[in-house]
Every structure is written in structure tokens, then in C-alpha cells.
Write a structure and sequence with these properties.
The chain is α/β, with parallel strands linked by helices. It is built from 14 helices and 18 strands. The longest helix has 17 residues. The radius of gyration is 20 Å and the shape is globular.
């Protein structure tokens, strides 16, 4: 039988032909965790009395959520994880100076056709390169660290086709928000989303990573882009070699299909307090803003920083604006291209490689009554700080334009 990408990956990983609904055990290619979840993973291992790893080369650890540590407890947890890394002799450890785990996995590790599990819900980000990537709880990840295996229910594949080319100031965020607007947050429960791009070069890896990242907001088990020339070029550029591409078979069957005409998309905004409460930017234009956050594992990539820099060049922001490239690599490239200088000159606070504001951890916590425009992935009550704050999710162009004007602004009206 012709297989979808989901079925092909999970058949390989389980050693048998699978179908949607099957409960299977699969071998994992990468198991990962970060500082916020790593403590619990190691705690489970210690309580089980099993402190070993199945393959040192396949464990990835990155400090990002509370990095650098903003309080003593965060520092204690990081000290504990560093000791675990040293004890186990793990080579793929990335301390506070490297980047957000999901970006690190994309830049250095994830490959088409892999099974990747990590102790964070936004593990779906690695689906951008065509990996079946899923977030799991600490107990499941601890078991995967020890055995190299996990269990899951084979999801039902759903196909999304992206046609045409996106217009000015339209990015992957708008595709993610369009899917949430159309299907809401619970529709894809028990499904995997496979995205086919008609013109691969018009929808770069940065955009794909944003859509895959927000697959979990759609409640999908995984959101994967079908590997193509863009996938091959990205990995060759980042790592110096061409990967083998795993793709669906011709005639593979999907539960359903949905097409997005990229040229018809408008900048979209998810308004409080739900990620699927999506409106066009024109419907919410003029709302006064206290803080803008450009970054996170959703939109902290080079193209996001470039978009913000283009809009803010030789101008000054009218509200607090925090910009956080997702990794040192993104920061360095943005610095070489002059984007960091542009943002700093515009009045932005810039650092790199921390999740900080996204989860209300540090480096930009929202206060009572404040309105935030954020390029991150969640806007439920209290997500970025005070329960009395409001978070609007948008692409980096809308965020930068809103910082420039001090109110939610359509970037098409100013640049």
C-alpha cells in the first residue's frame, strides 16, 4: 500500500508496516530535554534507580527556558543537569550561550525521516525538515533516554497544500494562524499534518519552522513539511552535506486535504485569550501596546530579525521592544548583516538564546493591565506574566510595526 510520510517514518522506526490507530513501539533517533524539564527527567531516572543512556550521541540537552538563570532555584537546576551531563559523558550539551533547544535541533541535528522526542510540547518544530517530532512528558522521555524507545498511537495523516507565493510581510506565522482560524485548536487531535509546498523556494525553512512549531497549538501529534529542495539546501548550508529525503508514496491516502493560497493571505493576529481567536490585523488595528516581543522558538530566526530590522531601520520604537534571536548562530549572522545594530539603534533590547518572555519567566514579564504583541506561540491568560495582561500573537512585521507606532499596526501601511 502507498504510504504517507507519517506511515513511512513510523513503519521504519517500528520495524513493521503501520496504519492509523495502531499502538506501536518505535526506536528514537534523537531524545532531548532542556533546563526546565531536564530536572524532572533526571529525577525520574534517579527514582527508578536507572542512570544510563541508550546512546550518548543521540541525547541532546540545551539550556534555554530560564537561561541565564534569573534566580537561585534555576541556577541550582542547571548545576544539577551539568553534573548529569558530565557523569554520563554526553557530548551534545549546549549551555546558556548556545540557543533555544528547538532551534538547536533544527540547526545541528534533525533530519528527514527521523523520530524525535523531547520534553517540551514545541518539539514539533523539527517537523520543518520532515522529521516526526513529538513532545512528551518527563517519564516518557526518561524511558526514551534509557532505552532509546517510546510508544505512541499512529496518527491519522491530514494533508495541507501551500500554493503560490506569500505577499509582502506575510510569513509562516500567518499560515499557522490561518490553519488555527479555519480548524480551531482541537480539530487535529490524533492527527499528523503533512504540508506540501508547491513552490519550495517561496516558503523557506524559517517559515516552515514557525508552522511546525505551532502544530502543537493545533493539537496535532506532529506537523511535518514534506522534504524537498528547500530541505536539502537548508541542511547542506547549515551542516555541509545533503540529506536523504524521505517523501510520501504517490497515491498515499489522507483523511482529508486543505489548500492555502499564499497570495491571498493577510497579516493575521491571535487575540486574547486563545491562539485560535484569529482576526486580520485590520480588525484589531489601533490597540495601544505596552511591550513588543520579537523572538522565541516560533519566530526568532534570521528572517524574523531581518523583517524587524527592515521596518525599524533609522526609526525609533514608541514602546518597549525586546528582540531575542533564537540561537547564537542566528544572532551572529544578524550581527554580521547589521540587523542587531539597527534594532539597538531603534531602541530595542537585544539578547539571544533564551525563552524568557515567552513563558513569563524573565527578561520581559508582562505586568498587570499591560498589552503585549508577541511573535511567540501562546496567548492564554497569564502566559507571559500577569493574569491581567493581554497577549496578541502576530508575525514579526506586525510586531515591529506595532513597536514603531506604539499600537497594533498593519505593516503594509508604513513600509
Amino acid at each position: 500500500m502507498p504510504q504517507t510520510l507519517t506511515e513511512k517514518i513510523l513503519s521504519r522506526a517500528s520495524g513493521k508496516e503501520v496504519s492509523p490507530g495502531d499502538v506501536i513501539e518505535v526506536k528514537t533517533d534523537i531524545v532531548a530535554f532542556h533546563d526546565l524539564t531536564g530536572y524532572h527527567v533526571i529525577e525520574v531516572m534517579e527514582k527508578a534507580g536507572i542512570e544510563k543512556v541508550f546512546d550518548k550521541s543521540k541525547i541532546v540537552i540545551a539550556f534555554d527556558h530560564l537561561a541565564p538563570p534569573p534566580d537561585v532555584r534555576s541556577a541550582e537546576i542547571q548545576v544539577m543537569i551539568r553534573k548529569f551531563v558530565k557523569k554520563m559523558g554526553l557530548p551534545n550539551f549546549h549551555d546558556i550561550n548556545f540557543g533555544i533547544m528547538h532551534e538547536v535541533l533544527l540547526e545541528k541535528y534533525a533530519l528527514p525521516g527521523q523520530v524525535i522526542v523531547a520534553a517540551d510540547s514545541h518539539t514539533t518544530t523539527s517537523g520543518a525538515v520532515g522529521a516526526f517530532a513529538q513532545g512528551m512528558g518527563a517519564s516518557d522521555i526518561a524511558a526514551a533516554v534509557i532505552t532509546g524507545k517510546t510508544w505512541l498511537v499512529v496518527p491519522t495523516p491530514f494533508k495541507v497544500e501551500l500554493k503560490g507565493s506569500p505577499g509582502k510581510w506575510i510569513t509562516g506565522k500567518d499560515v499557522a494562524l490561518k490553519l488555527l482560524q479555519e480548524f480551531k485548536a482541537d480539530y487535529f487531535n490524533g492527527m499528523s499534518i503533512e504540508v506540501y509546498v508547491e513552490n519550495p523556494s517561496t516558503f523557506p525553512m524559517d517559515y516552515r519552522a514557525t508552522v511546525s512549531n505551532m502544530g502543537i497549538e493545533m493539537n496535532a501529534d506532529a506537523l511535518m513539511f514534506i522534504p524537498d529542495e528547500e530541505t536539502k539546501n537548508y541542511i547542506k548550508t547549515m551542516r555541509g552535506y545533503e540529506p536523504a529525503l524521505v517523501t510520501p508514496d504517490p497515491g498515499a491516502k489522507y483523511a482529508d486535504e486543505y489548500t492555502i493560497e499564499l497570495s491571498k493571505l493577510e497579516p493575521l493576529v491571535a487575540v486574547p485569550y486563545s491562539v485560535d481567536n484569529v482576526k486580520t490585523v485590520n480588525e484589531v488595528e489601533g490597540k495601544e501596546v505596552d511591550q513588543v516581543f520579537i523572538g522565541s522558538c516560533t519566530n526568532g530566526r534570521l528572517s524574523d530579525i531581518e523583517i524587524a530590522a527592515k521596518i525599524l531601520k533609522d526609526k525609533k520604537v514608541k514602546t518597549r521592544c525586546i528582540a531575542i534571536p533564537a540561537s547564537y548562530e542566528v544572532f551572529r549572522r544578524a550581527m554580521d548583516l547589521g540587523y542587531i545594530e539597527t534594532l539597538v539603534n531603534a531602541g530595542c533590547i537585544v539578547t539571544y538564546g533564551t525563552c524568557g518572555p515567552c513563558l513569563g519567566g524573565h527578561f520581559g514579564v508582562a505586568g498587570p493591565g499591560e498589552t503585549i504583541v508577541s511573535t511567540s506561540n501562546r496567548n492564554f491568560r497569564g502566559r507571559m506574566g500577569s493574569n491581567d495582561s493581554k497577549v496578541y500573537l502576530a508575525n514579526p512585521a506586525v510586531a515591529a510595526a506595532s513597536a514603531l507606532e506604539g499600537k497594533i499596526t498593519d505593516p503594509r501601511s508604513i513600509a
